[in-house]
Write a structure and sequence with these properties.
Chain lengths: 63, 253
């Protein structure tokens, strides 16, 4: 293999590495955002339920 | 069920929840197969090994424009029909399009150094793709800058539709101006000008990355719908709390 080919292979590896890092980063960001949204939704539902229980036990909220 | 029934956020969450794991698995298998084809393809007689960069660069460029086309169609849905899923779709497509544009720009630059002798030239194709990247950045920044989601959706939809003028400019820039970037060699009126040994890995990679983009778009839309549900429930909860507080203040007076 000549020196020029070795250099070109380096460019190919660099291009694929950049694409992999950006693609994996986007995928990870999407997955983490989905997970966070699920956790936040569960938390706000628990808060709503707690609030409803506390105030129904105390005679309900004013209309 | 009519298409409008499928476009309901609750129905979308139901069927996308079933479809997404299969779509993600299919995208991964297709990507592995396309990578295998791309790495096994013969080197080009002029470009040598660097032709393999094209298997990432060209599909990334197509998807950068395709995601912008999805955003533009969604922007029309927001402005004309005010469909609840249109803004969700637009918001989920923007980061995906931005990343594909960035992959296109960086891999193109890495290919340009050994082939053209420069990392960058201000020719019409490269500059118009850079403008597309800046459009994506501007759209994402505008969403973050505006607090009212309805106003933000309308402003972003208008900006997206104005920016759509850049998509045909990118496509035809190599025909309209004298550019260092080569003219189209796949999407041509008289058929592809590539040898099948290069064309098939390129098409396989384009198909695989399209599946990845669709899966990410679907996942992004689901997250956006969940985040909107969280916001809506927080507003209801805060409203109930403030009504309760004002009631107890009224009672004490």
């Amino acid at each position: 293999m000549s020196g020029a080919e070795i250099t070109y292979t380096g460019y190919v590896i660099a291009a694929y590495a950049v694409a992999f890092v950006l693609g994996a980063g986007l995928t990870l960001w999407t997955v983490l955002a989905a997970r966070r949204a699920h956790i936040e939704l569960a938390r706000v539902e628990v808060d709503s339920l707690r609030f409803a229980r506390r105030h129904s036990a105390a005679g309900g909220e004013p209309s | 069920m009519a298409m409008t029934g499928f476009a309901n956020p609750a129905v979308f969450m139901k069927w996308s929840g079933r479809l997404l794991p299969w779509l993600s698995g299919l995208a991964l298998i297709a990507l592995a197969g396309a990578l295998w084809l791309a790495l096994r393809a013969p080197p080009d007689y002029q470009q040598g090994e660097t032709v393999r960069i094209m298997y990432v660069h060209v599909p990334a460029a197509w998807l950068a424009m395709f995601m912008y086309a999805i955003m533009s169609a969604s922007a029309l849905g927001t402005l004309v029909w005010r469909h609840p899923l249109a803004d969700v779709s637009q918001r989920a497509a923007a980061p995906i399009g931005m990343v594909f544009t960035l992959i296109c720009l960086i891999t193109g630059s890495i290919w340009g150094r050994p082939m053209w002798g420069v990392w960058w030239v201000w020719d019409a194709r490269l500059t118009s793709v850079l403008v597309l990247f800046l459009m994506y950045c501007g759209i994402l920044a505008l969403w973050r800058a505006m607090e009212d989601p309805l106003r933000a959706a309308r402003a972003v939809a208008i900006l997206t539709l104005v920016g759509f003028i850049n998509v045909p400019i990118i496509k035809f820039s190599v025909d309209w101006w004298n550019t260092l970037h080569q003219p189209a060699s796949v999407l041509r009126m008289d058929g592809p000008a590539l040898h099948p040994d290069i064309l098939w890995p390129l098409l396989a990679m384009a198909g695989a990355l399209s599946l990845v983009a669709v899966a990410l778009h679907m996942a992004g839309m689901r997250t956006e719908i969940l985040q909107r549900r969280v916001r809506a429930r927080r507003i209801v909860l805060l409203d109930r709390m403030s009504r309760l507080n004002s009631g107890s203040v009224g009672a004490s007076l």
